[in-house]
Design brief:
The chain is α/β, with parallel strands linked by helices. Helix content is 38%, strand content 14%. Strands 2-8-7-6-5-3-4 form a 7-stranded mixed β-sheet. It has a 4-stranded antiparallel β-sheet with strand order 9-10-13-12. Strands 1-11 form a two-stranded parallel ribbon.
Length: 396
């Protein structure tokens, strides 16, 4: 497998500014083909979905094509792909829908490793229904969340779990935790926002009953989608408008879908599938390309993590020896995270500071509201970018 980062970078006009982008965990840069797909769809003759006029058929084709592309990316089926404004919005929608089935005495489990988008919706839904919330704590020394730290009982209805921490990069053993949930008759809702851009995904292998992610984190436009088995979606009944269809997955999609963003999502997934030139189905090409990308980014992560470890006064959080996404979290003695952030920006390195909505994670690490500096490696990151970051941290 050959991953040609120079060839990849030629497709990103944003890189012409010259900055080294380590801010991908907050939203990746976009290749030219994605922008072209968005513009072409937005300026084409298009209407509400249908089969009569050319404009209707065009809208229908955009939606169906995007569902298939999203399914190929995560190993789902197109009939189980639900699109929404964001992963946060989708999680709120599904938390309210699932909560309709909960009874007093039931429990839901959330983890302190998660982004707040996979915590707060469940806390608020549980409070509205009088349901007990159990917390799973990760080890602050290593950033790891073992399966035995997840408190599942016969009363558990749902376990909400991240596939990869957006703050630390930690990748919990999702299959083991999901199996534990299923043994108790519970569902597993997995936040895949931070995993999807960096590794091959197979929702069935993960054991995820629901898998949510955000295309803008994997080189696409700003929206979200959720993958689930159509049979499971058929059992759920969300609040919706009376005239809107009751078909799955459309019954979960409120209002007209953003066709131009769906076209951009398809283009982003096709771009990922072509990172390593080859043949086969899109799903097969995605598997090859994402494995090559994971290997490439892991190599850069070792260089970055080792470089930070060699700089006096730098404290790194999480375990560098464990399997994780290419994300590092660090502080610099004598400097606030915000000061380091501004210093790096002045040197053309974009690596923001904060808790990045993983508020309970930052607190559990002892970082409080100010958090730390986070640097995330993306498909367009180079060895030169890593060197620039290390030199800038050194000078801080």
């Amino acid at each position: 497998m050959t991953y040609d980062v120079d060839a990849v970078r030629k497709h990103f006009p944003a890189l012409d500014e010259g900055a080294a982008h380590f801010d991908g965990p907050g939203g990746s840069q976009v290749p030219d083909v994605v922008g072209q797909a968005v513009a072409a769809t937005l300026t084409s003759a298009i209407a509400n979905r249908g089969t009569v006029t050319a404009a209707e058929r065009r809208a229908e084709e955009v939606v169906l094509t995007a569902r298939q592309a999203a399914a190929d990316l995560v190993g789902g089926v197109p009939e189980g792909i639900v699109f929404g404004r964001s992963m946060t919005q989708l999680t709120y929608d599904f938390s309210r829908t699932l909560a309709k089935t909960w009874q007093p005495g039931d429990e839901v489990v959330v983890t302190r490793l998660d982004h707040d988008a996979n915590i707060r919706p469940w806390l608020q839904a549980a409070e509205a229904r009088g349901i007990t919330v159990q917390w799973a704590d990760f080890d602050p020394a290593t950033g790891e969340l073992p399966a035995d730290a997840v408190p599942v009982t016969e009363r558990t209805k749902l376990v909400a779990l991240t596939a990869a921490s957006n703050l630390l990069g930690t990748r919990p053993d999702v299959p083991a935790i999901a199996a534990k949930a299923h043994e108790a008759g519970a569902l597993c809702y997995v936040d895949g926002v931070h995993l999807t851009p960096h590794a091959p995904v197979d929702v069935a292998a993960l054991g995820a009953d629901f898998y949510g992610c955000s295309p803008y984190k994997f080189l696409g436009p700003h929206l979200g989608f959720l993958a689930a088995a159509p049979e499971l979606l058929e059992t759920l009944h969300p609040d919706k408008l009376a005239p809107s269809t009751n078909a799955v997955p459309e019954r979960f999609e409120l209002g007209t879908l953003p066709y131009e963003l769906l076209a951009g999502t398809t283009a982003a997934i096709d771009f990922l599938a072509g990172l390593v030139p080859g043949e086969g189905t899109r799903r097969e090409r995605l598997d090859v390309s994402m494995r090559a990308l994971e290997e490439y980014e892991t190599g850069l992560l070792r260089t970055l993590d080792g470089g930070l470890a060699a700089i006096p006064g730098v404290t790194r959080y999480g375990s560098p020896t464990r399997h994780r996404t290419p994300t590092v979290l660090f502080t610099v003695d004598g400097r606030t995270p915000a000061e380091v952030y501004r210093h790096l920006a002045a040197h053309g390195v974009n690596a923001p500071a904060g808790s990045f909505y993983a508020l309970d994670c930052a607190r559990h690490l002892g970082l409080g509201e100010t958090g730390a500096v986070r640097a995330g490696i993306a498909p367009y990151t180079t060895e030169d970018d890593v060197r620039r970051l290390l030199e800038a941290v050194q000078s801080a």
